[in-house]
TrEMBL record:
Catalyzes the reduction of ribonucleotides to deoxyribonucleotides. May function to provide a pool of deoxyribonucleotide precursors for DNA repair during oxygen limitation and/or for immediate growth after restoration of oxygen. It comes from Streptomyces pini. Residues 1-21, 864-912 are annotated as: Disordered. This is Vitamin B12-dependent ribonucleotide reductase. Pfam families: Ribonuc_red_2_N (PF08471), Ribonuc_red_lgC (PF02867), TSCPD (PF12637). One of its GO terms (molecular function) is cobalt ion binding. SUPFAM superfamilies: PFL-like glycyl radical enzymes. GO terms for biological process: DNA biosynthetic process. The lineage of its organism: Bacteria, Bacillati, Actinomycetota, Actinomycetes, Kitasatosporales. Belongs to the ribonucleoside diphosphate reductase class-2 family. Residues 739-839 form the TSCPD domain. Signal peptide: none annotated.
Length: 955
């Protein structure tokens, strides 16, 4: 591992010689004399990203250079999000090499300038190892590093900020300004409003104060305005209020009342979906709200006693409330609209390394960063799957030694970045440089646990997660102590030395007390124990370079950059996921972790294959052939028929929390059927288990969401008695004896065939015949049967575009080159057939939205940037010929008076979330990406778009 020369016990490069002051850097992955770039195969790719809802091109850059093992999604996201320079100009970055060099060379230069390295040779090894780790997706810095470092703009490296506000109008207006500047840069901020006097207190002039809830309106409007002003993601903010603030009940009810407003406006006909025209009238929607509770309050809840709300100016209790009733209001509000979350004040400050410099009062928007007011934290996350080893005998182990080396490398780089970083405000810059808060974390925990045969909600899974987290934080503080011996401890350390060392002992004690479970976690615990012993020894001697070292962030965009299956501390979303294909199209695949898990559990290759086939077909493991019931839990996911229980998520957070400097960004999902009592239990157990913060989300609790609400069964209050129901029953419309048709000969991957498509005289496609050249073959027989099925469906009114969306991109042999200039490549005969039918019978707008264009249209796009023909080229008659089919009138039968709309046709999936919705027949409560229209998925307490990498918060 990397080592310092200030402590001979850690080793020196050569015995018997006195080493120069500075870090000696040991190679981890690289080879002397060989640059990391020369060890991989590079290729050129075209990045074209579209909004699938309207077919518009969001981003296009051709000929970018990436390693051949990077996925299409990772290439798209890094190119569109992180490459700098205007597209189409010589200044635009075109290669991953340029991006990595821009960042790592800046880090190396700053490290040399500030005396971090023992020699230029060590600086070069540092640069090469850092480049190798990013190149091979072993870790990633947070997004601001890739945006800003090495550019001419301010080199902001932090994504998370905590502000402060005092009880004065000047301070409140400064809060608005500072928050706005942070939002403008695409980052997020949080703060505690509890210093602002309540509406139940008097101003010096004798009038009543406005109270913090009133000032929240102005900040929320500012955030909403900046969001709509062109930012690449919504403004992310956290608002915290102490539980003993006299306005705490009004704070708790802010979003609940707004949800009632949303319902009323929706029922009146206003557009209240996310992104709708009228949703902007709703207040308090741009922030996550959290109540900061203390132990005294929670004990009062436990005992059912009274609790005092205290004046902000004098500290005296001005009102007593029933603690249990107030806690119930919090749970009811969270049940109704997911806010407020809860933060546990005494637990947070019990683990505070710098209490002499001020209490921790707030967090960043995603709740993982918690430290002093007016401070910031830059993040980096490791890809845990990169450290899972499989030996020749098929045994697995977690490479604790290499993991520790990478942690040391990354912590060194993160600390160097503070030397040159810019900050949005002077106060934040001063505090961050004085305390040098870092936030190393990880992604892919869910994938790692499944791959190693551990259920997410199991003692073994929690033990492995705890061991890795302990090793990560222990190694980070060890390196921090080593850095302190070279470039000095953080400025605020002397004043807080006793408290900082006390917290280090708390971490070490928690490590010693943790339960060891199996052959995977035990060696990691041993390495962590050694690290914490070094922390106590070196910290007592040299102090620490950093007041904070670790958090567990959402890892949204950077998780996609690293091709991670799971984000942060989250479990897998589902067993089958959506994958984009190079060259266009997509497919659904069973997660790669599933076969690894089955192998670890002792299943033979034939059994593994059968189980994977079952999962591919059904989306779950229930009744999978040969899979033992006791192993079902290993494959439990965040969504689906076997989803992880809410308390299972809480227990996992509790397993990691004692080994983190900060906290964990995670939302505990609860089913729609969950009760208020269950929310109370979650919030209460979070306190008992030692969490620092917690938020819940009950499915479908939000009204303003891009989902069609399910109709409730039975009558509502005040509804008239049911008299009749309108049902839409399909009626078959047969073709006349004489019908126009088109016969097309085709070749797909060497297989020849003929397709005859017959139309209604005035109303679109109604019949398809498919004949393969090899009569009597199985393929020919299946094609005959398939033709009949499709034809009958068309005659019953199934829209052609539904067939096209379902059957294009279906992949099986024969596949490959065709003899059709409009469809040069086909992934199967079915893929070709429906692309050809779309070109022949669907209007331009419909097939363009599906990404299907003729050769002429593609050529026009290259020449003019548009697929659409000029007005004088439009063939109005042909468009009319392919107009949608008429709908038969409904038939009325007895029943209720409400008309029942026909079920919508199955949609095409464009993300893993949408794929899960299709497979399981459920709706995921997640917004649509404002950049590309794809349904996002949860990443911690934020949302992430798999399509373009946009997030709804800080990452």
């Amino acid at each position: 591992m990397t080592e310092t020369t200030s402590d001979p016990a850690r080793g020196a490069r050569s015995k018997g010689t006195k080493a120069a002051k500075g870090l000696r850097i040991e190679r981890i992955h690289t080879t002397p004399g060989v640059h990391p770039y020369d060890e991989v195969v590079w290729e050129r790719r075209d990045v074209v990203m579209t909004n699938w809802r309207d077919g518009s091109v969001n981003f296009e850059q051709r000929g970018v250079e990436f390693p051949d093992f990077w996925s299409l999604n990772a290439v798209n996201i890094v190119t569109s999000k992180y490459f700098r320079g205007a597209v189409g100009t010589p200044q635009r970055e075109t290669s991953l090499k340029q991006l990595i060099d821009r960042v790592v060379k800046t880090y190396r230069a700053a490290g040399e300038k500030h005396g971090y390295f023992a020699s230029p040779a060590d600086a070069e090894i540092f640069e090469h190892e850092l480049a190798h780790a990013v190149l091979h997706q072993v870790f990633s810095f947070n997004s601001p590093v890739w945006f800003n470092v090495g550019t001419t703009q301010p080199q902001q490296v932090s994504a998370c900020f905590i502000l402060s506000v005092d009880d004065s109008m000047e301070s409140i207006l400064e809060w608005y300004k500072e928050e706005g500047m942070i939002f403008k840069g695409g980052s997020g901020a949080g703060l505690n409003l509890s210093r602002i006097r309540s509406s139940k207190e008097l101003l010096s002039s004798g009038g009543n104060a406005s109270g913090p809830v009133s000032f929240m309106r102005g900040a929320d409007a500012s955030a909403g305005t900046i969001k709509s002003g062109g930012a690449t993601r919504r403004a992310a903010k956290m608002v915290v209020l102490d539980v003993d603030h006299p306005d705490v009940e009004a704070f708790i009810e802010t979003k609940v009342k707004e949800e009632e407003k949303v319902r009323a406006l929706r029922d009146a006909g206003f557009d209240m979906d996310l992104g709708g025209d009228d949703i902007t009238s709703v207040q308090y929607q741009n922030a996550n709200n959290s109540v900061r509770v203390n132990d005294a309050f929670m004990k009062a809840v436990e005992s059912g006693s009274k609790f005092g709300l205290r004046a902000r100016m004098t500290g005296e209790a001005i009102e007593e409330v029933d603690a249990k009733a107030l806690f119930r209001k919090m749970a009811e509000a969270a049940w109704a609209c997911a806010d407020p979350g809860i933060q546990y004040d005494d637990t947070i400050n019990h683990w505070h390394t710098s209490p002499e410099s001020g209490r921790i009062t707030a967090s960043n928007p995603c709740s993982e960063y918690m430290h002093l007011d007016n401070s910031s934290c830059n993040l980096a996350s490791l890809n845990l799957m990169k450290f899972l080893r499989d030996d020749d005998a098929g045994n697995q182990s977690f490479d604790a030694e290499r993991f520790a080396k990478i942690v040391e490398l990354v912590i060194t780089a993160m600390d160097i970045s503070i030397c040159f970083a810019d900050f949005p405000t002077e106060k934040i810059g001063e505090t961050t440089r004085a305390f040098r808060q870092l936030g190393i974390g990880y992604a892919n925990l869910g994938a790692l646990l499944m791959a190693t045969g551990h259920a997410y909600d199991s003692d073994g899974g929690r033990a492995l997660a705890g061991a890795i987290t302990s090793l990560m934080t222990g190694t980070s503080y060890r390196r921090s102590a080593e850095l302190a011996s070279i470039v000095g401890p953080y400025e605020g350390y002397a004043r807080n030395a006793d408290a900082h060392q006390r917290v280090m002992r708390q971490h070490a004690d928690a490590n010693a007390d943790a339960k060891r479970m199996d052959d995977l976690d035990t060696p990691v615990w041993a390495a962590a124990t050694e690290a914490w012993q070094d922390v106590l020894r070196l910290g007592k001697k040299s102090g620490f370079r950093n007041a904070q070292a670790s958090v567990l962030a959402p890892t949204g965009t950077i998780g996609l950059m690293m091709d991670c299956d799971t984000t942060g501390v989250e479990p897998d979303l589902a067993l089958v996921k959506f994958k984009k294909l190079v060259g266009g199209g997509s497919m659904q695949i069973v997660n790669n972790t599933v076969p690894k898990a089955l192998k670890r559990l002792g299943y033979q290759p034939e059994q593994v294959e059968a189980i994977v086939e079952h999962i591919a077909e059904h989306g779950n493991v229930i009744d999978a052939p040969g899979l033992r019931h006791e192993h079902y839990e290993v494959f439990d996911c965040a969504m689906g028929e076997r989803s992880i229980s809410p308390m299972g998520h809480v227990r996992m957070m509790a397993a990691a929390q004692p080994f983190l400097s900060g906290a964990i960004s995670k939302t505990v999902n609860m089913p729609e059927s969950a009760t208020v009592e269950e929310v109370e239990e979650i919030y209460f157990e979070g306190w008992k288990l030692g969490l620092k913060a917690l938020a819940i989300y009950r499915d479908n609790c939000k009204v303003g969401q891009p989902l069609s609400a399910k109709k409730k069964e039975g009558k509502g209050e005040g509804q008239p008695e049911a008299e009749k129901v309108v049902e839409y029953r399909p009626v078959r419309k047969r073709l006349p004896k004489g019908r126009p048709g088109i016969t097309t000969s085709f070749t797909v991957g060497g297989a020849e065939g003929y397709m005859t498509a017959n139309s209604y005289p005035d109303d679109g496609l109604g019949e398809v015949f498919l004949k393969m050249s090899k009569q009597g073959s199985t393929l020919a027989g299946m094609m005959d049967a398939f033709s009949i099925a499709v034809s009958v469906g068309l005659q019953y009114g199934v829209p052609l575009e539904t067939y096209v969306s379902k059957f294009t991109n279906m992949r099986f042999e024969p596949a490959g080159m065709t003899d059709d200039p409009d469809v040069r490549m086909a992934q199967s005969i079915v893929d070709y057939i429906f692309r050809r039918l779309a070109l022949d019978f669907l209007p331009f707008e419909t097939r363009s939205a599906l990404g299907i264009h003729s050769a002429e249209e593609r050529q026009r796009h290259l020449e003019t940037g548009s697929y659409e023909p000029a007005d004088d080229e439009l063939d109005v008659e042909s468009l009319a010929q392919s107009a949608p089919r008429r709908v038969e009138p409904p038939k009325v039968v007895s029943g209720t008076s409400e008309p029942q709309a026909p079920a919508p046709a199955p949609k095409e999936a464009h993300s893993s979330t949408e794929l899960v919705e299709m497979q399981l027949g459920l709706n995921a409560d997640a917004p649509l990406c404002f950049s590309c229209g794809t349904k996002m998925r949860r990443a911690g307490s934020c949302y992430l778009c798999e399509g373009c990498g946009s997030t709804s918060g800080c990452s």
